[in-house]
Amino acid sequence: MTTTPDTPDFASTSLPKHLARGGIGFGALIGSIALLPLLGPFSLALLPIGLVALRGCPMCWAIGLMQTISRGRLQRTCEDGACTLTVAEHDSQREKASGS
Length: 100
Description:
The protein is α+β, with helices and mostly antiparallel strands. The chain has helices at 15-34, 36-39, 46-53, 58-70, 91-98, and strands spanning 74-79, 82-87. It has a two-stranded antiparallel ribbon with strand order 1-2. The chain is elongated, with a radius of gyration of 20 Å. The protein starts with 14 loop residues before the first helix and ends with a helix.
């Protein structure tokens, strides 16, 4: 039996989308500070954009990056109250095992 994670899911649907969110988020955060001498307090309007793109914090984005990379590669199964983490089989491995 495969279980769903009990922890929050920060992963994106694809790695390019997640990296784009990171570029926008970190770019907005850095821009809000770098543009402070030029635009004054108006540059701080970029802070909420950066935080929304990163889903709250840079650490949340980093956790999501790891989840996005590992999605489909690791599988958690629980039997008799004990859970194990294994490498998930891919379609090509299943075909080889079945003799097709």
